[in-house]
Design brief:
alpha+beta, two-stranded antiparallel sheet, globular
Length: 219
């Protein structure tokens, strides 16, 4: 049986029938991890548990059924997006989608931005980016004194929670005054990316290690 068939059958058995093609209920990262575990189970492999990556932000990020109409192919595309460890690999997946199905709709572009944020967050050791009330929570985060000073200067209303190894940043708004509204979709994903760049910059050697680790895992 082809590997792709095993992947899809494994996901179907694990997530249950028709749910194998839908990530909305469990989230992109957990969904892909469950699929990977199902494949490993089919192959009789032992899997080491990975830290769950949670990105829970107000985004509409998915592969529409009217863009990729076959459930198996959607599953394959989700897995490729999640497996990307740098921008070049991510762009390869997007180029492949465009070649096969034409220009992708906005939810797919947002999904790509989710993948970009996942890559960037892992490089800083962050695996939790979640909306919590009027804040966005980032964790685990341990800041040096200079990083705390920078946080207070750039994000003055942020709350540092050392005991929880997290920082709460006021959720970003677009517009001003009565016209202001919550950021959503690619805007809030780019904002989160910028926060990581500003407060948790990645040293080049660290970024290389993350990339090499991802390449070894995918190989």
């Amino acid at each position: 049986v082809a590997m792709k068939d095993l992947e899809i059958r494994g996901a179907g058995n694990l997530l249950g029938g028709q749910q194998s093609g839908h990530i909305e209920g469990v989230g992109f990262d957990l969904y892909v991890r469950l699929v990977g575990e199902a494949v490993a189970k089919f192959r009789g492999e032992e899997t080491e548990p990975e830290a769950d990556m949670r990105i829970e932000l107000p985004v509409d990020a998915h592969l529409p059924a009217d863009y990729v109409d076959h459930e198996r192919l959607r599953l394959e595309a989700y897995r490729k997006l999640a497996a990307a460890t740098d921008e070049a690999q991510l762009q390869e997946v997007l180029d492949e989608l465009t070649d096969r199905y034409g220009p992708y709709p906005e939810p797919v572009g947002v999904l790509a931005d989710v993948a970009r944020l996942r890559i960037r967050a892992r490089a800083s050791g962050v695996n939790d980016i979640v909306m919590q009330g009027n804040f966005i929570r980032f964790g685990p985060v341990e800041l040096s004194d200079s990083q705390v000073v920078r946080l207070k200067r750039l994000y003055p209303k942020s709350l540092l929670k050392p005991a929880l190894r997290s920082v709460l940043v006021p959720k970003p708004m677009s517009g001003s005054g009565f016209d202001s509204k919550e950021m959503t979709d690619s805007d809030i994903l780019r904002w989160a990316h910028q926060f990581l760049d500003a407060i948790l910059p990645v040293v080049e050697s660290e970024a290389t290690e993350v990339k090499e680790a991802g390449a070894a895992k995918n190989g």
